[in-house]
Amino acid sequence: MRILIAAAGSRGDVAPYTGLGAGLREAGHDVALATTDAFAPLVREAGLEFRSLPTRPQGHGSVQGRRELMRAAAEFVTELGQGFADAVDEHTDLLVLSTTTAPLGTHVAEAMGIPALSAYLQPTAPTGDFPPTVMGTRSFGRLGNRVAGRFALRMADRVYTDAVTALRRRLDMAPLTPTETRRRRERAGRPVLHGFSTALVPRPSDWREGLDVVGNWWPYLAPDRRLPADVEEFLAAGARPVFVGFGSMAAGHGERLSELAVEALRSAGLRGIVQAGSAGLAVDADDVLTIGDLPHTLLFLRVAAVVHHAGAGTTAAALRAGAPSVPVPVTADQPFWAARLTSIGAGTDPIPFASLTARRLADALGRVVRQQAYARAASVAARQMATEDGVGAVLKALG
């Protein structure tokens, strides 16, 4: 089968699909991944065909309020929609769509008569079990959570309205709003596979049939990939360090975060590895090593704890390694994932990015490293995650 996966957004929105694509390829399928040009190396390293989506994330790296985030998202998807159809050719047998691309790819699939499978990294369907991932962490009660979930879907529909209108016009299709499209799919009971672990988010008790939580799709890792020599030397030179990184978040905050991290680590009596990321963290010290892009799969097994922005991918990677977390959520769905870590005991109480200080971080590090309950909870989650087969679930869905 010739499969096209479409994913867009930050690195965390794309990298899991490289692992999914590689798994599908190993099962005998011909797989391409359509995403933005920045992630072409990730796609090709996984042995997948790269197809370009003509946009780049806007505003992902900065610290924004909800209104600014919504406006940036609308600009992002409108640009994305302009060229989405170009990535799909007549030889495609199946479209696999992410949370970000499904509201656009659904229309392309309809126009070209191609089946589509939704493969999401976040829970988006309303549930009474928890509030929507983009609306903070305070529960409104079961009924209130469901109402809030439906409101969040309508807000997402608004983000995609202009993009869908332009795309359907380009495809010579009758007008249809994102809300009408979504309701049609719900009435048809279309399946949605969710690529996160039940160890972190159990399948909601009130979801309809066809909405399944199947386990993570892990970013592709070459079998011969190893940590660099300088990292191995640093790891061997003392006690397990703490990892500190904010991924594609907090652009422009590098100097402040670097100073803060060093002060907190030394106050807690710990060594550290800081990842530059979009923030540009940089520390020159004997007890703190600065690194660039390295696979979390290899590094997190070797650290005492992980300080991170609580993106879905980093959250899952820390759990998979059995490493306890200090979550510092910045925006979007990060407070949700941070709260889930806390709820299962594998992370300290979240420290919102805007409230982060060296003292608060040092206090959290002292607890997470020295109170073994956090590591035990992370190890329990890791064992459960090891029993899940996210790629296998997608293969099963293909029939």
Automatic annotation (TrEMBL):
Keywords: Transferase. InterPro entries: EryCIII-like_C, Glycosyltransferase_28, GlycoTrans_28_N, UDP_glucos_trans. Transmembrane segments: none annotated. The keyword Transferase applies. The keyword Transferase applies. Gene3D superfamilies: Glycogen Phosphorylase B. It comes from the Bacteria. One of its GO terms (molecular function) is UDP-glycosyltransferase activity. GO terms for biological process: carbohydrate metabolic process; vancomycin biosynthetic process. Pfam families: EryCIII-like_C, Glyco_transf_28. Residues 286-388 form the Erythromycin biosynthesis protein CIII-like C-terminal domain. Residues 3-121 form the Glycosyltransferase family 28 N-terminal domain. This is Glycosyltransferase family 1 protein.
